[in-house]
Amino acid sequence: MRIIAGKFRSRRLRSLRGLEIRPTSDRLRETLFDVVTAGNPGALEGSVWLDLYAGTGTVGIEAVSRGAAMVYFVESSRRAAEIIHRNLRELGIESGVEVWLHDANAAIRELGGKLAQADFIFLDPPYRAQDAYRGTLLRLSELPLSETAVVIAEHEKKFDPGDKFGKLRKTRRIEQGDAALSFYRRG
Known about the structure:
By secondary structure, this protein is α/β, with parallel strands linked by helices. It is 29% helix and 25% strand. The chain has an 8-stranded mixed beta sheet. The relative contact order is 0.15.
């Protein structure tokens, strides 16, 4: 895995061996960031991200590389959280990041008001944990997110997390290989 663009372009990231973690592929990550910056190349400058089910932190670190001011990494696996810390250290990223060793829903509760400032919320639960998508999206829909905030769910192409969760509505879906990205906004 490598950083695709920005300050840390082409730098490699560490991962965990085996199938415990499934990092977002370089190609899908590139598509994700192309979509969120389409028509507004400066959309990431100073942005606030929440990287739920962060795994090795590839999406959040990519956001930092491209100009995000703050990224909250939330991961329930101690081993994965240690890899996030290690990747951040090796890149020299010391500020504008917080790594939370928590269950996603507990972190959403604890972060509460801070998430009202989130510009982008990315979630990528284990594909087999389909209930986690619905539960997390429903929790996020209950937060006072800004009208411009974008919630992005990575999931298997053959799975659809749903179109509507409280005030969150799916606005777009992009498929690539066996994965897909669903984009949600308030509305």
